[in-house]
Structure formats: structure tokens, C-alpha cells
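Need C-alpha cells for this chain, all 236 residues.
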Amino acid sequence: MVRSGRRPARTVRLAGRRPGTRQAPARRPTGLRQRWRHIDWSRAGTITAVVAALAGLLLTGVSTLYDALVSQGELGQARQAADQETRAQALRVSYWTEYPTPFVKRLHVINGSPDPVWEVDLLMSPAEAGRDHVLQLPTLAPCSETVMTQEAWGLTPGQGPPYAAGDRPPGVVRWMAFRDRDGVVWKRDGNGLSRLSDDWTVLSVGHGDHALAITAVTEGARGVLPVKQTPSCGNS
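Here are the C-alpha cells for all 236 residues:
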């Protein structure tokens, strides 16, 4: 038998490979997936905790600010209520002038509260009774109205400045001061009601050449009409 000088061909198969195929190289993650893999999750947890803490502080601050605003509003309402309660009686004490004729004047002084009022001083206008003339009432009874004609402050009917029909009558009283049931001193004038110091006295108004001329007003005196009860007088 004749043997050929050639060796039979072998089929060499590489382990892990199939004939006719190529193994693809490993792909690296790109873009968002690559960034995601590079995150330091221990540091990210710390950042999340800090953000959560800041959010908690913000919410706490907002809540504290809201509570402070509510408390401030309630405090303001309480102060307003206390101020209204303090002024309640004083708001019911007033005066007004009636002009039945151009030469007749009647001054009405009213205490519309159910408590007495003390040390009532009415500073008259210069045209009526001089610069520093005061009518002084020791007290105003509860729910009462005291009426005086110009005779009470030294004028007789026909004296004093008259006014023409249609004109605004001249003022008779410049202001009134009085002490309420709690000892608080108030002043009422054309601008409304204001509080004076508790140690205020009418003697502090005039001094030296302008000393006050004080006329005491009592029921039954000349020009003072009988005290009347006010039609309605609610609780203060």
C-alpha cells in the first residue's frame, strides 16, 4: 500500500468558539448609565439627608412664622378690646350747644353711662366768657343730662355773639375734661376723645396773668336747669 507524503487535514476548533462566528468586545456603559455607575452612593445619601433636614427647617420656620403672626394678631385684638373697654364710659360723655334763637344758647352736658363722672371742667370760648373761664361741675349723675343757659357762665340773654340764619353757630365750649369711674382723665374737643395724665387738673391750664376764672355749676343755680334723665342708657 502506498502512503501519501501528506498528512490528513485536521479541523482545529478553538475552545469556546463556533465556526464562522466572532466574539464581540465588551461594551462600556455610556451617557446616563455611565454617570449612574460612577455615583458615590454614600455621599448621595448624605446629600439627601441634608436636603431633607433643610426642608424640615424651612417648614418649621414657616410654621413658627405663622404662629407668630397669629399670636401677634391675637395680641393686637386683645389690646384693641382692652382699649375699647377702657374708653367705653368716656365715649358716652359729651356736650353740645342748642341755639333756640340767635341770642339764646343752651349748653347740654350728657353722661350716657350708668356710672357717675367726676370733676367735669368745660373751658369756654373767648367770645363767650373770656380766654380762661371754666365751668366746673363736681359730678355728672349716671344717665343724666345737665342743661345750662348763658346765664350760667355770666351772660344775660342778648349778650354774646349772635349768628345769622344759615350761618354755623359759634362754638361755646373749647373742650371738656372729666374723670371716669376708674379715675382716668379724658378730654373731649372738636377732634374727638383723648386721654390725659391721671394727675391732670384744670389748674394746670391757666397761670400767672392768665389764671383761670372758675364758675362752679350746681343744680338750681342761676342758668342751670333741673337735671334730666337720658331717654336710654345701656350698660357700658
